[in-house]
Design brief:
This protein is an alpha+beta fold and about 100 residues long. Helix content is about 30%, strand content about 20%. The two termini are about 15 Å apart. The relative contact order is 0.16.
Length: about 100
């Protein structure tokens, strides 16, 4: 988990932080390596580094417009997608191997 957080600490941070928790690529890898049970999760990659964002502005009906998304519906059902023009397949395969 990012910053050595427990799953419970990460969940609290996500719930208490307006707009959610921002992670860089290494943070996403740390997250994927440390999570074992996940329910109702949405990770979205942005084109550029952002310091904050408006979660209400996320287009949940068009997640394909974002470079990379991970949705976890429960621990057994995940959807990982990447836009073909922005995917680094090396990193995508690394992440896929860690969450499968």
């Amino acid at each position: 988990m990012p910053d050595g957080m427990s799953v419970e600490e990460f969940e609290q941070a996500a719930n208490l932080t307006p707009g959610g928790v921002l992670l860089d690529w290494n943070g996403v890898i740390d997250f994927a390596s440390g999570v074992q049970h996940t329910y109702d999760l949405l990770l979205i990659a942005f084109e550029e580094d952002v310091a904050e964002f408006d979660a209400d502005a996320i287009d949940l009906d068009n997640l394909a417009c974002y470079p990379f998304t991970i949705q976890a519906f429960d621990s057994g059902e995940w959807m990982v997608s990447a836009r073909s023009d922005s995917a680094d397949l090396t990193n995508f395969e690394e992440l896929r191997s860690r969450v499968s």
